[in-house]
Amino acid sequence: MTETPAALREAHHADVSGGWLRPAVFGAMDGLVTNIALIAGVGGGGVSPRSIVLTGTAGLVAGAISMGLGEYTSVRSANEQVAAEVAKERRELERHPEAEARELADAWVARGLPRDLATQVAEAVRRNPEEALRVHVREELGVDPDEQPSPWSAATSSFLCFSVGALVPLLTYLLGFTSLWLALGVGAVGLFVAGAIVARFTNRPWWTSGLRQLLLGTAAAAATYLVGALIGIQGGIS
After folding, report:
1. What is d(CA 142, CA 10) in angstroms, rounded to the nearest whole number?
2. What residues contact residue 160 under an 8 Å CB cut-off, 6+ apart?
3. Where are the chain's structural domains?
4. By the number of CB atoms within 10 A of the CB, which of 113, 166, 171, 235 ranks highest?
């Protein structure tokens, strides 16, 4: 059976322009690690299950809001910076079109195109101002002005995924169980599953991605547990 070349298939690449995957992954992982470490820390200090639930819930709400606002501000600021640079390039194309065409041709020559061909293509592009702007922005800034990520998409995905991730280690307490180690075990499973899911988008082996996230989360939880245990011991002595 002859395989169809990827270039002839529609959508043979994943959509990487929407700006939702990075904040979604970061939000879910951050929610998991943050609340697992938070619960491990206060649990290591010997507080009651009710206090653990209160602490974890507060961490979920505060973290989700912080992540959403942070992603919105970050993406919005980056888009505004790109817009400012695009406006600057538009002015240069209007004022010095010949110089800009030469600059574009020089860039292509540096990549190996013959000078005559590069000049010819640059002149052809110059005749269409909007296309010239897109080409110059791609070549000089490395971005596509028409495919900038949405700050609302980034904020929403980050907020929701952080909330889901932070909820996982709280589930056992919310279901009536009071064992810290059971909650941390469920959180560990959540870390592994989240890492394995991310592998679907990156084509990495699911088990290595899951183990990597599990090890990182375990290190964070171990550190906060030790801190909580030390503070709890000192408090008991005093």
Report:
1. 24
2. 24, 27, 64
3. 21-230
4. 166
